[in-house]
Structure formats: C-alpha cells, structure tokens
Amino acid sequence: MVADERLDASPGFFHGITCFFGGLGLLLRTPSLWAISLVPVALFLGGWLLFGGLGVAYLPGLVGAAVGPTDSVVGGLGLGLLKVISGVLALGLGALVALVVAQPLSGPALASLVRSQERRLGAPARPETPFFRDMIQSVQSVLIGLAIGVPAMLFLAVIGFIFPPTLIVVAPLELLIATVALAWDVCDLPMSIRGLPVKTRIRWLRSHQAAVLGFGFSCALVQMIPVLNLLLLPAALLGSTRLVWDIEQRELQIGAGSALS
Q1: What's the number of domains the chain is made of?
Q2: Does residue 6 form part of some domain?
Q3: Considering the domain boundaries, does residue 197 fall inside one?
Q4: Does 13 reside within a domain?
C-alpha cells in the first residue's frame, strides 16, 4: 500500500535535485564517460572564461557609472556591494551563455551521453542518428531555451542598470529565470533525440514542473561552484535522462500512460 501511494504521488522538487546529483555522481565514478564528457566541458570552459570574463570586466564599472560618485561611507559601502553583486551576476550569466553556446557545438557528444545513460537504465535501444541531426536537435533546444529566458533576462538587466538598488531583487529573479531556462535546456535533449515534437516536450515539462524546477535549481547552483561547474553539462544530461526515465516509468506503473508516447 505504501509503495502504491508512493507511485501515485507526482515527483516533486527534491526528486529533481536527486536526479541531478545522481547524474553528477555517475559521471565522477564512471571513467568510461570521461573522454566523451571532455568535449562539452572544454567548450563550456572556453565560453565561460570569455563571457564571464567580459562581464566581470565591464558590468561592475557600468553599475558604478550609473550610480555616480558618492561621498558618504554608507553610500560607498552600498556601491561596493552593488559592484560585488553585479560581478557575481556576470559570472553566472557568463556560465549560462557558455552553456548555451557549448550545447549545440557538442550535440553529438551529448546525444552519446544520453544513449549511454539510457542503456544503463534499461531503456530500449534507439537507432544512431546522423551527426548533423544531433547538432540540429541541440540547436533547437537552445533556441527554445533562449526564447524562454532572454526577453525576461534583458528586461531585468535594463531595470537593474537604470535603478541599481533594485539589483538586490533583480538578482534572485534572474536566478529563477536561469533555473527555468537551464531546466528546459538539459531536460529537453533526452526527449528530442526520440524525435518527439516540441509541443509534446513542453507539455511534459509543464506536467512535471516541480521536479523540473528542482533539477534546474541544482543546475543553477552548481554553475556557480568553481570546478564543479565545468562538469555541469555532461552531469546534467545524465541526470535529466534519469529524470525523464523515472517519470515515464512511474506513469506507466500507475496506468496513467506516458506523456511522451
């Protein structure tokens, strides 16, 4: 009876967190995955150094110019805090942009990681797809993620630039948006390589938003941790493949039918 109740419950926020860190643990303890994981890791590292470095070099200065000179001690401390916040934000945004750029460039390697995880989970073998199809699928996932996150991020960035004190509120909101965008970005690929239409994939994400947000929150958190953030993309793909598989099997076991079928 307890088992049945557990199956009836929708996977929650913490299930998403568990799947992400399960993927990270699998990557760390499985040497056979390291070589293929180096492709997205190298691309992500290069992009993060470029975009994050540019952000740290220019954004705090722009914030200082927008605020203007201050003569009081409190004003100076406040300006320093805003510069620190903007620098941290620049690093986070740089990591997000690097992730967006690295994903399509390493599409075939990421698809290989997804298939490797599916084999471990006992999923049916899927036919290999051509190199450019894997890349196109990754580009499609990225473009949808950008459509979700970029307009809102730009709006908040403008608000923060015009009214710097609002950065204390803007930064958490941007983290939330990054969470949603990251969740889509990494949870979509295990579904897209099955050839599922975008409408089906979006419906699945909306149906399991608590677990997906937990997963995306873990991604957003890890991208801020030095060294670990280099493993974000391959670990997230392994974890999202597990998340999609767990939810699909749960739906089939309770007789609800898979939302991916």
Answers
A1: 1
A2: no
A3: yes
A4: no
Q: Which two tokens stand for residue 53?
A: 């470095």
For 30-166, where are the alpha helices, taking DSSP H only?
34-67, 73-105, 107-121, 131-162
For residue 213, the SS3 value is helix
Asked if the structure places residue 258 within a domain, the reply is no
Range of the domain at 237: 26-252
Which residues have a Cβ under 8 Å from the Cβ of 51 and sit 6 or more positions away?
93, 94, 95, 97, 98
- List per-residue pLDDT tens for the chain, 261 residues long: 333 434 444 678 999 999 999 999 999 999 989 888 888 888 888 888 888 888 888 877 777 777 777 777 666 777 777 778 878 778 877 877 887 777 777 777 888 888 889 999 988 777 666 666 666 666 766 677 677 777 877 788 778 777 777 777 877 787 788 778 778 777 888 887 777 777 888 888 888 888 988 998 888 888 777 777 678 888 998 999 999 998 888 887 776 555 555
User: CB–CB of 88/174 below 8 Å?
Assistant: no
